[in-house]
Amino acid sequence: MTSPTDPAPKPRPAALLDGAPAPALLRQALPLALILSLNGLLGLADAVLLGRFVGAEAMAAVSLAFPVLMLINALAMIVGGGMAGRLSRHLGAGERARGAALLAGGHGLALALAVFAIAVFALAGWRLALPGPGVPGAVARESWLYLAILVGATPVQFLLAVQADAFRAEGRAGIVALLSVVVTGANIALDTLFVLGAGLAVAGTAIGTVLAQVAGLALLAGLRARTPDALRPHWRALLSRDDWSAMLREGAPLGLGLAGIATVATAVLAALNGFGGPQALDEIAAYGLATRLFGFAFLPFLALALATQTLAGAAVGARDGARARKVLVTALAGAAVFGLAVQVAFVMGAGGMSAAFLPDPGPVAVATRILPVMAALYVTSGPLLVAAFYLQGSGRPGRAAVLTLTKPFLMLPALVALLALLAGRTAIWYAFPLADAAMAALAVGLACVLWRTSGREMPAGEEMASRTAGTAAGNAEGAA
């Protein structure tokens, strides 16, 4: 709100700051859920193509590539998520010129990270796909080719993430959702053409994905150029590194959460490879299906968390702490209800899900056994993610990191290794509910600490205002 002495009112993003929190969350989350679910549907379609028409070895090849693929997605989320959190606060404060420079810097950071990813893969790519005791060399070669195509296209993927997250921060997720429908449909069609028509197997799905990403980036760039009030990047700031460290710092808890998933996958695959035996390939294929199914179920949570980040960031930028808290409470309730529904579906329907994607009885039996165990406490996952994105969006990446990094980097790898050592290969799946229980306890403890200290710390909106004025700022804090 402006005072009578203000020279001119600053523009407010009404879609983010006005109205009740629940409808505002739905307006932001539903288009994002559509976008993300379409991407997840693409992953499931690829699973059907590879599992039913190519074979279990193709699914195993994709499973071996999964950790590296998650690292790539983590880098994309670091730059896109880190930029979006800051951009939503600048727009909430009416600082469009600052936001335009930030958007250009996000493009520069995306290209720099893409070059880094390509260089690392060029040096170590084959080592990332070396076969284990239970994995044939042909499967490892397919995995390497799949990764080589996707890593080579990281500039497109990272720029696409920047453009999409910028539209989200501006409150235009609905437009991006409509474009995503077209792009995902084309991606599925291309994957089918390359896998079944051209017989390219695993590589065919990678080629189809890259072509779809190119089309998506062109559509988003064209949309930004043709939308009159869309934010225009200040391209003079493309190579400026002024905001890179801030974007990396704020995006790290989000992107490293995905990198942690890669760490968990590496630990599981290492345990399965270490046991070896004829069933290793079945277990790897089943775990590959589990990662796709859980990844698909995770996407609505991510949409709600991203919407929470956008709305909370705008409220903090506008110095409206009460609205930010209402957004958080509403999002936590929605995540808990949906999480319970997903948990029941995985526990009750594991057999049907497994048989729908894997024709071979060996992987189906393994997947039917492990899915209910892995999902036993899945109800906690969504609220934890929402809380982490709220903290990040309101300018507290350090505390967000506690919720996003502890489980994948510390708890799950340690539990997988410990259970494999003490109880054998069938016990490693119990690491997932045990880690969920530990994270729930940690989150309750963190909430208690934040509640006790909230009165002694500066709210995030006041911290941003102090920085804008050039004064010293205390730690950002609000209600958790």
Report on the structure:
The chain is mainly α. It has one domain (20-469). Helices cover 79% and strands 1% of the residues. It has 17 helices and 2 strands. It has helices at residues 14-17, 21-53, 56-92, 96-124, 137-152, 154-169, 173-197, 201-226, 244-275, 280-317, 321-348, 350-357, 361-374, 381-393, 397-423, 431-453, 460-469; strands spanning 458-459, 476-477. A two-stranded parallel ribbon has the order 1-2. Helix 3 runs parallel beside helix 5 and helix 10 runs parallel beside helix 14. The longest helix is centred in the middle third of the chain and has 38 residues, at 280-317. The chain is globular. Mean pLDDT is 77; it is low at 1-9 and 455-480.
- Which descriptor suits the 3D outline? globular
Write down the secondary-structure element order: HHHHHHHHHHHHHHHHEHE
The major beta sheet can be summarized as: 2 strands, parallel
- Percent range for helical residues? over 70%
- Structural domain tally: 1
User: Mean pLDDT, as a whole number?
Assistant: 77
Structural class estimated from helices and strands: mainly alpha
Please tally the β strands and state the result. 2
What Rg do the Cα atoms give?
Answer: 22 Å
Uncertain runs = 1-9, 455-480
Strand order of the largest sheet: 1-2
The portion of residues forming beta strands comes to under 5%
Terminal-residue CA separation: 24 Å
- The helix count comes to 17
Oligomer status: single chain
